[in-house]
Each structure stands twice: as structure tokens, then as C-alpha cells.
């Protein structure tokens, strides 16, 4: 039995998928650079989230959930009731996804959480209760820029859906580009100010 043609077809399909994902990343990057406000970026993220096979996205500085400080990034499509639940139960600071985001520099699927952070009682409660609000598994891209609040871009599927494993690398690139666009819209990085040196200090230099 000749299996070479079958292998060839599989390889060709794989190459076409890679090409399609590469084009999707390039298109997203170009369109994100043209966004003028959070609404533009939210609409763009909503479209690409569904194209990647996810149902929800959350692009944010983690501290935005507990602070109203100006300049913090927060753009998401999670059910509004989920934030109310987190706040009502005092679970905002117990999200293991956010905790894991400061423990690694690459994207991670949520089923990998136990290998990144301890899943204690409150962290388990966050994961368990999120499913009641329709949030199933997900994938998170950490964004930790020195001097700026810790953040991440997450993509999640609805409860009971299957995580699109073959698209996670594509999601990682898109998440990084999305956060870069959000940083631009919110004025990050802040313009560096030239330090003022006294005459004596200039002489020492």
C-alpha cells in the first residue's frame, strides 16, 4: 500500500494552515496599528478571537480590576456578571491565570496552570466558578514590561468547547500585537524626560 500520497497531502495541508495563520497575524498587526481608540481595538479583537476558534478575550493590566487609575489598559468581552462575581467574593487577587503570567515569558494554556503556580483553594474557586459563567479553558499571553503594570492577553472558549490547540502559536503572536497596540493607545511607554543636571554634575560627567 502506497502511503506517500497521504503523507504528502497532510504536509501540504499543514503548510497551507501555516501560511494562513501567518497572513492572519500580518493582517492583524497592520490593522491594529491603525486603531484610534479602545473601541476600534475591541472590535478587531472580537473578530480575530472568533477566527482563532475562541469565544472571549481579555486584554488588560491586572491592576485594572481593582483600581480606577487613569492609563490602565482593560479591553475584554467576558460576561459582565463574571467581574461582579469576582468582586463580590473577594477573588480578584486570586486569579491563577494572572499569577502565572508573572512566572513565565511565553504563552500558556490554562490546563498548564498547575505546572506554573500552586492551585490553592481560592485559585481553584476562581476556575470552578468561572465555568458557571460560561468561561471554559483558555490561553494567555503574558505582557510584563519593566516599569509598567503587569498585564496579559487571554483568549477563552465557552464551557464545553474544545481548545483550538493548533492555533495557539498564532494566538500568542496576535495577543502580543494586540497589547502593543493597546500600549500605544494608552500612552505607553511614557516619554522619557531628560534629567536636569547642575553645573557641578555636568562637570563630573
What's the layout of helices and strands?
Layout: H1 4-32, H2 38-51, E1 56-61, E2 74-76, H3 80-88, H4 96-101, E3 108-109, H5 121-132, E4 135-143, E5 151-158, H6 168-185, H7 199-204
Antiparallel strand pairs: 1-2, 1-5, 3-4, 4-5
Helix pairs in contact: 1-2, 1-6, 2-6
Task: Characterise the protein shown here.
The chain is α+β, with helices and mostly antiparallel strands and 205 residues long. It has helices spanning 4-32, 38-51, 80-88, 96-101, 121-132, 168-185, 199-204; strands at residues 56-61, 74-76, 108-109, 135-143, 151-158. It has a 5-stranded antiparallel β-sheet. Strand 4 (135-143) and strand 5 (151-158) form a beta hairpin. Helix 1 (4-32) packs antiparallel against helix 2, helix 1 packs parallel to helix 6 (168-185) and helix 2 (38-51) packs antiparallel against helix 6 (168-185). The longest helix is centred in the N-terminal third of the chain and has 29 residues, at 4-32. The protein starts with a helix and ends with a helix.
